[in-house]
Structures are given as structure tokens and as C-alpha cells.
Amino acid sequence: MHSEILRPMVVLIAWTLVMLVWMLATRLPAMKAAGADLGKLVGSKASDADRALPPEVQWKAHNYNHLMEQPTLFYAVCTVIALTGTGDGVNAAFAWVYVALRIAHSLVQATVNKVGPRLMLFLASTVMLAGLTLHASMAVF
């Protein structure tokens, strides 16, 4: 039997891959339209793309990068919770809420990119992460 908390972890991983595909599907055509030759690009930086591509295209890339940041803590704390046998009940619920909030954050950032709603979603997901961290620390200490 596996821990229930593994399910939201897998869903967030799958969502991250969805964002990767969405980013590539919009960014590659925009790069071509901007005249970028992928065969000649060497050592470019994210800021180079921010200057060369439309903001709406870059929003997907920015969100993909965000999914590589705080969610890494989510994966780590959920793994601790799963290993301690406390990944059901309230911890699974917190994890599902975290994932739902991160998906909502992605959709806001990738489409309208309004900072206010993004910030509220980020803060709410951070509260869920803090709760998971507290529960993980209670399980191991």
C-alpha cells in the first residue's frame, strides 16, 4: 500500500510537464518569428529571451521556472511525510490544496499574469507548504 500523499506529488509533476509542453509550443514558434537561429545560439540567458520575445510567450517560461523552485520543497516534505507513514488524512488534503493552488497560479501567470492574484495564490500555497513542513517535523522529531 502506498501513501496517499504520493498522488498529489505525481499530479504536480504531470502539471509541470504540461507547462513544459505549453512553453515549448509557444516559445519555439515565437523564437522562429523573432529570427532566432537555434543552431547559432550559444550561452544565451533568460534575460535575452525576455528582450527578444513577447511577454505573453515568456510568461509560460517564467512559470515553468517557478515550478522548479518552491515545489522542490513540496516534493521533499511530501517524501518525508510518506516515509514516516503520515501521508494520509490532513497531510494528503494539504498536499492536494497545494497542488490546486500551484496549478491555479500557473494558469494565472501563463495567461493574464496579474501580480495580485498570483501573489495571493503563491501565499496560500506557501501556507499549505508550511503546514506540511510542520507536520513533517512533528513526525520526525
From TrEMBL:
Signal sequence region: none
Transmembrane segments: 6-25, 73-99, 119-140
Subcellular compartments: Membrane
Domain of life: Bacteria
GO cellular component: membrane
InterPro entries: MAPEG-like_dom_sf, Membr-assoc_MAPEG
UniProt keywords, alphabetically: Membrane, Transmembrane, Transmembrane helix
UniProt-recorded name of the protein: MAPEG family protein
Lineage, top ranks: Bacteria, Pseudomonadati, Pseudomonadota, Alphaproteobacteria, Sphingomonadales
